[in-house]
Design a protein that fits this description.
mainly alpha; 2 domains; 14 helices; 57% helix; disordered C terminus
Amino acid sequence: MHLSEAAEFAERQVAGVRDDPDGRLLSLRQLYDDAETRSWRLPFRRAATAFMQWQLNRGLLRPMTDPLPGSPWWRAVNEQLLRDGWEARALARGVGGAPSTVSVELCTRFIAEPTSANWYRAHNSSIVAGYLANRALARDESRTERFFMNLVLVRVLYAHALVSAPRLALGWLSPVAPVLGDPRLGMTGLFLSMSRILPDRYPLPDDVETYIDDEHGFGRFLDIGIIAPRVHQLYAWSATDLGQPELGALLSGDVPVYAWPAEDFAPWYPPPSRAARAVRQFVPPVRGAHRARW
């Protein structure tokens, strides 16, 4: 397959930091540096780099030649995000070519119009593209790691819905949803709070239930009380909004099944706490609403 000049430029940028975890972080930060619009984009840069910093802390991005190698899967998904960003950046600067994928196209839209909704579309479309392209690598990870791959995906999709589909995300509380999900306000970390319970090491042993039992705070409340009742709507809406129709196949019924067997549903639906049951009644999902009204 012949790559455009912009895509070749992006490949070189990624290759230059492939075995340099700190260089990956610097590369991501550089994507948001622009003399004319830097002040607009710095808050988005903080959101984009926060989760990558957690990946660095866990050692996920270490070279495969390292005595303690990183994760082939996490490294590949991280590269997808960088590659899409650099291709879009090159196109915006007039380097030859057209967007090679829908995720690159959404990145170019964010560069042209840096809004919260456009940031989520660009970021999450690249993340989903990375997931879809690297399913074989995901299957080699531990059960615990695969559980959290799915949980990361669920939560980033939900954070996007808070901004772009507030009725889906919070029902009658939709007026507050865009503020809760705004990546510039530092709230997004709450939706990736698994970083508070997962140890800063890799790989993890196959004892996912231990980590689930440890999460009794906001994360459990969010997953069981709010997201679980609307997860099917969330995946269907996200697949359309991100231009990634294959995303729907990563859910079976109400069970996330990215490199995960549908019959292993117990970790996803532990007995809800009293608070989770209460919030399900207080903020039920909207049923039967047209997608355009989300």
